[in-house]
Amino acid sequence: MSANRNIVLFGLATALSCGAPAFAQNNQQQLSGAPAAQITVPDVNAADVSQEITLTVNKSYMIEFDTDIDDIIIANPAIANVTARDRRRVAVMGVAPGESNIVFLDRSGRKLKVLEVSVTDGVAGMDQLRGLIKKYVPTSKVQVEAVNGRIILAGRVPNLSAADRVVQLAKPYAKDDASILNLMTIDGKDQVTLKVRFVEMQRSVIKQMGINLSGSIGFGQLTGNSFDNVFNFASANGFPIQGTALGGIAANLGYQNLVGAALQSSLGARIDALERVGVVRTLAEPNLAAISGEAGKFLVGGEFPVPVAQDQGQITVAFKPFGVGLGYTPVVLSEGRISLQVSVEVSELSQTGGFSSRVGTGIDPDTGEPTSSAILTIPALKVRRAETTVEIPSGGSLVIAGLIQESTRQSLDGLPGAKDIPILGALFRSRDFVNDETELVVIVTPYLVDPTDPQGFRDPDRGFVTPRDLRTVLFGKLNEVYAVPGSTVGKAPAPKGSSGFIVD
Is the pTM value of this prediction over 0.70? Predict the structure, then answer.
């Protein structure tokens, strides 16, 4: 400690005799621009004269006293050193990363100031970065600091786009992306409500037309009004697409030749004819809310069981979802601008592509073989799925269309050769025709929202009261509304936007 003290005293004497030490002369411009701190000499009875400062390497901090300094004690000059301009002005300089302290004493040995100095390995160019942020993001209030080779960005920015611009400006001054610590907050609204509308139209056309012939002819010697030999024939033209006749008209035509009770010959025809046209409309209209940057999900449908094999031959059941699903992640870029990542899916159960297997329900103790079996059927899913990311204004709509699917299947069954005869060939064949058309449209509209007074909304069951039996019997009422005098039940203002139920 005495050696350090002698060195500092020698430095002070040199500064006073020569005007300034050599180090100060070489860094005249740096010291003249350093911040100055006016120090008032405390009373002898002052309890605390300590101060904490943080410096970066090769940066200085100027301190001015209102009384003469006679002695300076430096704990570790290799971390923080002092250069004296005169007996009342000193500059504290960061030499290397670390911590140290410096004690300033007057002629009587009284402590004037105790500096707790922390020196960090700063990042060069912070003043230049602050200037760039002020130039290119003028509406932001960002503080930039460099600590241990990292850049800390704090403060407030008007929107997410401005925050991203500040980070992009800081990247050239950082070692890598991990060296940038983003502590900025966004002033804009960050709650988004999505109004989604799913509309699906399905149209199906089924046609079946089939003719099956049957007959019998007896021949041989007549014995007791009966034939010794009978020849029977029949055609079986099925409907392979549907598996069977679905209905419509079924007509049986034919004749029989009988001698007494004996059938001599017969001829018959069965005609099946069907044309079916169906239309299905599916509508879902959810309203969903999410915080900016957070993901949300929506599903209207169900779940079907799927067996899953486990260890040691055990089987468990897992449930797979199906129906109308939506996944979304909104990000508020600026006031009125929203980046929206959305994925939509409409799925339904289908036997096409499903899995069927025969499983045993019992084991023979002698042979180990199944004694009985059952059919295990696992359905498949028909899925229409779309995923996209767009940037749209608040209140603007995104339409996902073009999810059109058309399927046509046709089958002809008939007697070889006979079915190809013009006109008459229709008597020897059956036609099975199916045409399915489906179109799905999804409309998504995001809004920036604020919390709303719950009194501004109307509950769907407000005012509903189950009627008394007499009122139902006499007047056919399924509900009744009542209120005490002066009550506003049933008179509340209608809510803003869409609410309640949609009744077709």
Answer: no
